[in-house]
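Entry 14. Two folds queued back to back today. First construct below, sequence then structure tokens.
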Amino acid sequence: MDTSEAKLYDSILIVVGVVGIILIYFIITIIRYQRRSLRLHKEKIQAEIDTLEKERKRIASDLHDELGPLLSAVKLQINSLDASNETDQAVINKSSQHIDSIISKLREISNNLMPNTLIRKGLQKAIGEFVEHAHQASGLQVKFVCEQPLKLDQQKEINLYRMIQEIVHNTIKHANASILLIKIMIEENRLLLMTADNGKGFDYFSKIRDNPGLGLRNLQSRAEVMGAELSCQSEPGKGTIYTFEIPI
């Protein structure tokens, strides 16, 4: 190789090296930007969820600590009235029954907003109580299976509880199902949440593409902030299966 060819070869190597460095720099910059965008997106979703949970907790506290005692006081005052005839007494009794129904409904709403069992006794007990109430209210047969003790941080427990709550509500409202199975198990360093119903099913991908409902968006958002993988198998007439793989 003569001197001119050597110089040309060196020049090409320098150009290739500079171009390579520039490409590597841009690739690294893009990766960093994507990671930063993903982190900011997750932080935004988490902030929205935290705000929602705080507001639910506040409303639940107001219902339990303020409206509940107030209604109980009104009931006592009504029951203390001395009716002059049977008609008036019947009105008093009926009013007292209505107040009992309102108090019961307030407790149910308060528990749905922020279940005390979840805070006091943990996720498994809270899910067990919730699915029992759902069965009593709707007739849906819900089987909950979790054979391993769950020791999760409170944030994950709240997210898991809300996801199951959302799936049960969607099943009751849209699926026309008679049976829903909910199973939680731990494999190595991941938690698996699986649900299956025998309802009418739906076209998941068309639903996501055309008009994702609030319920599906909530499931996706909570799965995303936990770094979970969400899959849904559903076809019209064949029920719906959700699977969440959550790192722990």
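Second construct, same run, same settings:
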Amino acid sequence: MDAKAGYKGKVLVAGATGKTGQWVVKRLLHYGIPVRVFSRDREKAVSMFGDSVEIATGKIQSAADIAEAVTGCDAVISALGSSSVSGESSPAEVDRDGVIRLVDEAAKAGVKHFGLVSSMAVTKWYHPLNLFAGVLSKKWEAEEHLRKVFSMGGRSYTIVRPGGLKDGEPLQHKLHVDTGDRLWSGFINRSDVAELLVVALWLVKAKSKTFEVINEADEEQRSLEQYYDSLSE
């Protein structure tokens, strides 16, 4: 499908200056989709993206900042991620409360679709990753809130739960997708996570889906749209 024919709205990217967020922006621009990034550091965003995107400056802790950023956007893709065990960059502040705040303000602004980068093993409280200030549990709470809010009012969501994230170009690996949080280990390119969330903007079969994904084998792909076919209804 031609992306411009399939999706014409403006997309807000939260967490755009992070490694995965940068790929989300790149893949949106690849398909000619207008992008607005939400960043607390305007200079950093400008240095990364120049004038190829709109930049909304603010903090994920501020509902007012978020409300201004989402105004006029048709979709949101969140690549937010915590980087410290406490303070404003902690899992509680970012992975849970920040995402929940973003979901609520997006819904109020009339955003129709919300894409979220979550994590494999998010339902497993005993997973070693949860030793990082309960990050998986915080992501799970945010997921639950997103599903509740964006399952009504004509809204939709796509939640991608990647394995360990690594660098690399998109469309270079065959992927393994699953539901029910049954995968325990594996890796995936950040660029493919971004690609999955971007194509979900215009794929009906991607709406209201939550799934895990990891690399399966080195095998060049023409598109990642096919992987939504294998998800249960």
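Quick look at the second one. Residues 3-228 form a domain with the Rossmann fold fold (CATH 3.40.50.720). The two ends are 22 Å apart (CA to CA).
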